């Protein structure tokens, strides 16, 4: 049944969906034909889905409705108090935290807001920090199973507070589907610091997580895109509560805030959960979920900074917030004025991928960083190889500008390194309480700081020429960090069969170094194109031409040189800021469209479902079970059985395997290709195929989608 037909009842003025039909996981009826239309038409289907970020879906509250606007005001005022405290000399921080796309965009947004504020102090570049499950290396290579570890979240937040001597901290836990244990545990720590009770609906055998250091004033917020009524109470081993329990406590705290009372004290927590509609590719929250995350965090941060600069201008009031959101909506619509050109680049990219070539992004500053983020999300979403979509960034040597402290990732890396040396487990893998001091004594925090400084090294422009042998060898020899077969593997020279996309904007013009590298790639046979955002100067267009660009896609041209966003002019202290929120939204949407449509055309998407996703955490295991059931027509019990057969390569699932926790299945599945497609073929065959035969059928077929469609039902 299509998602729009699932609106079963109205209760208390709020639309209610069936219990298991979470909006973020539902197939979007607007994109049901995504794999059955030409590339330019597919881009226009994405436009319809993205419009739901502001229009909403299924009668549920969108970002522009009264409830979410009230929560956004609360969050913005909370951010404003921390920014004001920082400006007054306090060690006050706003920490954006999340897993996967949420954590990557937490980094991007915190980095940008610190540049806008422009008030560094000591080693801290500003009050906006980030934490990402799996550490900074997860910006480049998905480490999504890290989101299931509550202790990792607790360790990282404790380490952040200690490392920066935080006196005050506001933790904004981002989880698009409202399920990430990593950020949920950090929000729970802040609630506990305020004496706010959180229900213990999780693992009853789990030890309590270590509290925040005494004397730290802590507050928290949750950002996600499902109604609270649809958030599952999923029990995760070693966590005594659930994300649903944490969300409920945040909502109870926010309800105590009197929005209309002048000077009313803010609550210790709030929750912002507008519905942005089902994703264009079901479950792939890198798209709308990521875009909405970025624009909402930027809105709250920029308005808080603008209030610091102009306290009497009303920047914290709902009308001002609403005006900024409407500007973002306009930018979204203007992006798709270039739908035909975006579709042409997506088609060329698909041809490259089908022929064994690659798609490679090249840009500077935030524009280049968005390319890095888009590339990093293709392997887990589409089952792509690490080398299929890559990115080079001219700011690779300057990835900092954000306070952080990823102790849990350092401990895990140290443990893995010890095992690789044949020493067995060191016992230093993430665990509750007492581990931060031990990590400091063991030097693991030093390793953590090194990772924070060097995560972007594999994105150096020199790798486009395939001659960065020394740098690649140094990366490969590192005892911890990214997988050696992933982004740290040497990149072969970009040339024949590849697509190279230059990324440029007025704030992040393409430097001559990048144009020269692109020109060399073009001479080696690469198809070069450019995506230019906003008003591109004649000099920049000339430089793009010298780089050998065969096509220039221009998006957001009508937004103007002032970015069309008054709050940015009010917030920025000077010309040092590269941030152009509207332009960046345009670029993110365009990049998402290119790689999405390219993989759809390659046959990695069935209808509008990410049928070749990698099962790398508990959430994706549950999502895979539902996906197999939906695409094969079997019930969820049969679907789960077929998925377990595919994961473990067995014809009969033993009782101990069937009873094992999802974490065990994830550990096995994360290292395998074609897990979900094989399960779909098994389910459709009704027991008539072995696992090996199903996998061979997939490998022999033209595309994954073709093999799944042709399987007997």
TrEMBL record:
Residue ranges of domain SIS in the record: 349-604
Keyword field: Carbohydrate metabolism
BP terms from Gene Ontology: carbohydrate derivative metabolic process; glucose homeostasis; response to fructose
GO cellular component terms, semicolon-separated: cytosol; nucleoplasm
Highest taxon above the source species: Eukaryota
Entry's Gene Ontology molecular function annotations: carbohydrate binding; enzyme binding; enzyme inhibitor activity; fructose-6-phosphate binding
Keyword Calcium: no
Chain residue ranges for the region called Disordered: 1-22
PANTHER family noted in UniProt: GLUCOKINASE REGULATORY PROTEIN (PTHR10088:SF4)
The protein's name: SIS domain-containing protein
Organism: Cafeteria roenbergensis
């Amino acid at each position: 049944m299509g998602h729009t037909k699932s609106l079963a009842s109205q209760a208390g003025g709020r639309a209610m969906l069936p219990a298991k039909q979470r909006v973020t996981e539902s197939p979007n009826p607007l994109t049901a034909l995504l794999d059955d239309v030409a590339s330019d038409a597919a881009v226009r289907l994405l436009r319809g889905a993205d419009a739901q970020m502001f229009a909403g879906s299924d009668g549920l509250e969108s970002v522009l409705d009264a409830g979410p606007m009230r929560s956004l005001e609360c969050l913005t005022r909370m951010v404003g108090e921390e920014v004001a405290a920082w400006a007054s000399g306090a060690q006050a921080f706003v920490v954006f935290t999340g897993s996967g796309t949420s954590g990557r965009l937490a980094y991007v947004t915190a980095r940008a807001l610190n540049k806008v504020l422009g008030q560094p102090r000591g080693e801290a570049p500003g009050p906006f920090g980030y934490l990402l499950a799996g550490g900074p290396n997860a910006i480049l290579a998905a480490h999504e199973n890290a989101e299931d570890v509550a202790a990792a979240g607790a360790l990282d937040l404790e380490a952040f507070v200690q490392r920066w001597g935080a006196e005050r901290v506001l933790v904004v836990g981002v989880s698009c589907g409202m399920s990430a244990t990593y950020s949920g545990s950090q929000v729970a720590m802040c609630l506990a610091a305020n004496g706010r009770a959180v229900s213990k609906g999780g693992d009853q055998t789990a030890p309590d997580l270590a509290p925040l250091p005494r004397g730290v004033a802590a507050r928290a917020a949750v950002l996600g895109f499902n109604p609270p009524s649809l958030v599952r109470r999923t029990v995760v081993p070693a966590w005594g509560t659930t994300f649903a329990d944490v969300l409920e406590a945040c909502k109870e705290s926010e309800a105590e805030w009197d929005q209309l009372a002048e000077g009313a004290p803010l609550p210790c927590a709030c929750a912002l959960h507008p519905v942005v509609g089902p994703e264009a590719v079901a479950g792939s929250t890198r798209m709308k979920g990521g875009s909405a995350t970025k624009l909402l965090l930027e809105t709250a941060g920029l308005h808080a900074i603008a209030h610091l600069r102009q306290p009497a201008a009303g920047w914290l009031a709902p009308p001002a917030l609403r005006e900024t959101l409407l500007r973002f909506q306009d930018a979204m619509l203007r992006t798709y004025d270039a739908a035909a050109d975006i579709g042409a680049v997506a088609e060329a990219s698909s041809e490259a991928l089908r022929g064994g070539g690659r798609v490679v992004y090249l840009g500077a500053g935030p524009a280049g960083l968005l390319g890095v983020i888009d590339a990093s999300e293709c392997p887990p979403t589409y089952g792509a190889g690490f080398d299929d979509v890559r990115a080079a960034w001219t700011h690779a040597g300057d990835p900092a500008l954000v306070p952080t402290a990823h102790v849990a990732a350092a401990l895990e890396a140290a443990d893995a390194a010890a095992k690789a040396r044949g020493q067995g487990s060191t016992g230093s893998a993430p665990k509750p309480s007492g581990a931060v001091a031990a990590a400091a004594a063991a030097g693991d925090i030093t390793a953590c700081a090194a990772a924070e400084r060097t995560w972007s090294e594999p994105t150096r422009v020199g790798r486009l020429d395939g001659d960065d042998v020394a740098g690649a060898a140094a990366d490969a020899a590192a005892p911890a960090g990214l997988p050696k077969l992933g982004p740290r593997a040497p990149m072969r020279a970009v040339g024949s069969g590849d697509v190279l996309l230059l990324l440029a904007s007025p704030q992040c013009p393409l430097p001559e170094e990048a144009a020269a590298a692109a020109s060399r790639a073009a001479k080696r046979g690469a198809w070069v194109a450019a995506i230019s955002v906003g008003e591109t100067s004649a000099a920049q267009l000339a430089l793009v031409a010298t780089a050998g660009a065969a096509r220039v896609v221009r998006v957001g041209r009508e937004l103007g040189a002032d970015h069309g966003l008054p709050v940015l002019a009010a917030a920025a202290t000077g010309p040092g800021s590269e941030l152009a929120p509207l332009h960046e939204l345009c670029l993110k949407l365009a990049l998402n469209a290119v790689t999405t449509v390219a993989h759809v055309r390659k046959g990695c998407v069935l209808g509008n479902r990410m049928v070749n996703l990698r099962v790398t955490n508990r959430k994706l295991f549950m999502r895979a079970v539902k996906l197999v059931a939906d695409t094969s027509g079997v019930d969820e019990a049969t679907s789960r059985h077929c998925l377990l057969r595919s994961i473990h390569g067995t014809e009969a699932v033993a009782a101990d395997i069937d009873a094992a926790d999802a974490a065990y299945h994830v550990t096995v599945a994360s290292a395998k290709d074609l897990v979900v497609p094989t399960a779909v073929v098994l389910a459709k065959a009704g027991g008539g195929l072995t696992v090996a035969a199903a996998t061979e059928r997939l490998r022999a077929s033209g595309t994954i989608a073709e093999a799944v469609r042709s399987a007997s039902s």
